[in-house]
Amino acid sequence: MLLDELKDTQVQVLSEIAAAATNKDINDIRVKVFGKSGVLTTLSRGMRDVAPEERPKVGAIINEVKVAIEEALSAKQAEVENAELLSKLESEKVDITEPAQGVEKGALHPIPRVIDKLCDICVGLGFSVVEGPEVESDYYNFEAMNTPKNHPSRDMQDSFFVNEEIVLRTQTSAVQGREMEVRKPPFKIVCPGKTYRNDSDATHSPVFHQLEGLVIEEGDKVSLADLKSMLTILMKRLYGEDTEIRFRPSFFPFTEPSIEVDVSCPTCHGKGCSLCKGTGMLELLGAGIVNPKVLELSGIDSKKYRGFAFGFGLDRTAMILNSIGNIKYFYKNDKRFLEQMK
Amino acid sequence: MKVTYNWLKEMVDINVSPEELAKKLTSAGFEVEEIIYQNEHLHHVVVGKILKIERHPQADRLVVCQVDIGSEITQIITAATNVFEGAHVPVSLEGADLCNGIKISKTKMRGVESNGMFCSGEELGIDENYFEGAGVNGILILPQDMKPGTPIDKALMLDDVIFDVGITPNRADCMSVIGIAREVCALLGRDLKKLNLNYDIDIYAKDTVRDYVDVEVKTPNCFRYIAAAITDVKIEKSPLWMRARLNAVGIKPINTMVDITNYVLIEFGQPLHAFDQKNIGGSKIIVRQAQQGEEIAVLNHNTYSLDENIMVIADQEKPMVIAGVIGGMDSCITDDTKTCVLESAVFDLKSIRITSRKIGVRTDSSARYEKGVNVANAEQGVARALHLVSKLKCGKIARGVIDIASKKNEARNITGSVSTINSILGVEIPASEMVRILNALGIVTKCTGDRLDCIVPPYREDVENDYDLAEEVIRLYGYDVYDKIDYSLFENASVTEGHHHPRLALERKMRSSLAEHGFFENVSYTFGAPDLNKKLLLSDEENLLVRVENPLGEEVSCMRTCMAYSLLNNIAYNLSVGNKDIKLFECGKTFRAKSLPVTELPIERNMLGIAVCDAKYNFFNLKAEVEDALNMTSCEWKIERSAMPFLHPGISADIICGDEVIGSFGKVHPTVCKNFDLPENVFYAELDTGYLAALPEKKYNVKAISKFPIVDRDLAVVVDEATTCEELIQSIKSSCGKLYYDVSLFDVYRSEALGENKKSMAFNIKLSDLEKTLTEEEVSAVMKKVLKALTYKFGASLR
């Protein structure tokens, strides 16, 4: 009698478990079966009426039923929980195409960025980075650079004057004299910084940036060929490994021989484009062997030492590297321009 | 400097095309910036002879002309009224593309065929000065001797090719056709043809130059003065060949005498001046410095007041010419000049430069004198001019010249070294090749072993040593030799240690961090308007302005004394173009004069400036950025209330290191915001990066950490408004004693319930012991002590 009831209960409960869909259903079944007045609890009390010799057998059956139900319950519970987790995950789905959140990033300005890059390259090549004043004496800006007062080569640059003896430096070359006075050869220096010329139109800004390089060595270690090697490396690091350079004659009062350096156009790689006006080359640097008069003016024995120097405009470099079409963008500091440098 | 192909051909046998020549000149350091073909717009234009003129059957204003154009008779319709049968006129035919943009093709006009167009002088790009009749309103009537069918560029001598050559300041000798011709000779391996310097003198005439003029030089700034006299002067139009040359290089032909002086100026680079002899007071030329206050009316129709820095050519009464720059009205050549005195002089380049700058006049003469005219040049210049007078038959030349020279310029002997030159160039050029090149350049060179003995001609004052010789050699040998050089050669260099610049390196860290935090880096002009201090409420006495004497404009005439000026302007600009939430920074220099007027270099300070205009931003956000930047250095700083005039007095702080204020930050003062057209929620910070970069590198000193857990407790106390967070934290810290690990403020609360001038401050206190786990009793004891101290010192009560 009891055994039949147990069997029926097992079948009944297992089918209820199979039909359960939520955790609550499972708990309800658990209470209904194992609670104080649960089905199985009630049936277990029926053991009192079973003959003593039958009790072990009935007890074992009760236990079997209990285990079967419990197993079914926990299996069902795992199943339900898993389903609930899946549906929870499903409901938490986001639109992954919405914009990223967090602190909006700013950006570095293209010119200081070029300065950073060049300093890294040049330090790697054994150059030390130096600086000089932007409001400079006429002496260091011109005279020490072999450009005496009222000399025709002063016409090459329109200066801003503070007075007869003080100018806004027209070239970072102005650091050459300062450094040569205090350094002992051999040395290699570069000087990045602001320069000023009384000139403002579509392609000229009265404030602009240059990088000056100076190498002073014992005489036979420096030649135009060495200058070519150095500048080739520098330009390759700056514009890419397939960059090539070419020399053309020029004149600067502080170098002799003086050269202009053409660099293969980084945009078209020499094929010709609108940037290089179809020539495949861009006129980017001025350079040369340091004029021995400049060495002597700064107290370096030109019989014993020789040097080379180079200089170029960083605004132009930044324009080429970032395809910037208008030099005036640099100094307006419009957020719409700067945002593009992120 | 403009020179023409034909002009050069007169001095050198040129066997290459104009394009090839331009390429060679450029590769030798004479950059041909432009090649201008004079006949660019004259193709398909020929001389025509009008044979017959008939009325147009359909139009009253038009006539139908039968025109002989050499190869055929063609029909052309014109509305011009100055044509006549038998007239020679320029005819543009199909395919012509005139300088005013008109393109010619065969058309029908009112049903009648027209095969071209007659041209005016203007349509050919010439004026009355160049060719008689070219200025009339109508068709250019050509001389009868021009053969029909002749291309017009040939007929009018407009077939030259003009090179616009950039001359570097070291090559003043090439500010002339002959100078460039010498280079062409060297480039092509030719000899310079001798120019005709001969002139006829009437052997029966008795007069000499001294019968017309005397010269006295009273200033050391005149190195040479040559005067010649020409009588029976004929002032008329100079011949077409001369006008053609002058016109090609952009000089307006005027009359024989003036054209001759200009011709020699271009050809020889020797400025000349022609005086009307009758206007030379006392028939005496005196070269002297002007007297203070002397005045002269010159050819540009201005009158200048002179001083002793300006050299003049005077007569016995008055200045006649501002020496080397511009001639006076009173003594110049006019149509009724009968006797002319010709000056060929050389002046100190500095003197001319100073004068030209001072009066603001630059002429073809001053441009050459400023760069330096060779003393030897004056003699050849005057001879060439007299030759031209003779050739043009425009006057009789008096015997002799007056020649006063205080400076000589002769060929110099220098020595060079083949091995040194090669070591400068870093290539191996054979000695024989050097000798060939230098000789071709007119530097007479002999080689003995390694030694070069050179005779440098007077016009090459720029050649002095091995470096100069190296440049001469390589620019003709060809810089393309370097195209083949392998770049690994820099191996020759000594090993040197490269150092970053300490300040730039520190700034780079700060800049990167700011960019990470949403700030945009700026680079601004370093100058501003004279009221830049005033706009920032800064005093001009404490921030002495460095003024630029020749600014581009008043608003950019002073160097900034504070980064705020640039950054606040940049914010204003960004707002004006509709940008929002603006966070900017810039590393740059500020400038303060040491004294006024400026006698020494100003104080340049390297500053980091930060500026924010963002509704959600506050003082403490800015403080975080400042602390971030300071934490990159070893700086031990404290903050104090700031008295910086452009900051809000209650919402600003100075950063103090030692005794120095090395920066400030806070909300921008509302008056300053108004001055810069800004809203009021603007924040600004600045740090002296130069100071910070000079501090020793930041060192870290790591203490032991406990293996027992940290205990934390929150504590909120109500205190008076005046009590500062810093004071409370210091007290808590000392009460915790050796169990102190950390304390931080996490909430500030104000309400009516708390009462006026009261605030609640909630702290999170962390305790730790290196030796053991803290018990509840130990923790409560510390917390009691903390509260007791706060109550005692600040009247704090537990909230």
Please sum up the structure shown.
By secondary structure, chain A is an alpha+beta fold.
Describe the protein's architecture and organization.
- The complex is a heterodimer of chains A (342) and B (799).
- Chain A folds into two domains: 2-91; 110-341, 2-Layer Sandwich (BirA Bifunctional Protein, domain 2).
- Helix content of chain A is 41%, strand content 20%.
- Chain A has twelve helices and ten strands.
- Chain A is rod-shaped, with a radius of gyration of 43 Å.
- With 799 residues, chain B is α+β, with helices and mostly antiparallel strands.
- Chain B has six domains: 2-38 and 161-188, Phenylalanyl-tRNA Synthetase, Chain B, domain 1, CATH 3.30.56; 45-155, Nucleic acid-binding proteins (OB fold (Dihydrolipoamide Acetyltransferase, E2P), Beta Barrel); 209-405, Phenylalanyl-trna Synthetase, Chain B, domain 3 (Phenylalanyl-tRNA Synthetase, Chain B, domain 3); 412-485, Phenylalanyl-tRNA Synthetase, Chain B, domain 1; 502-694, BirA Bifunctional Protein, domain 2 (2-Layer Sandwich), CATH 3.30.930; 711-798, Alpha-Beta Plaits.
- Chain B is built from 20 helices and 38 strands.
- Chain B has a seven-stranded mixed β-sheet with strand order 26-29-30-34-33-32-31.
- In chain B, strand 3 (45-55) and strand 4 form a beta hairpin.
- The longest helix of chain B is centred in the C-terminal third of the chain and has 19 residues, at 776-794.
- At the A-B interface, helix 5, strand 1, strand 2, strand 3 and strand 5 of A face helix 7, helix 10, helix 12, helix 13 and strand 26 of B.
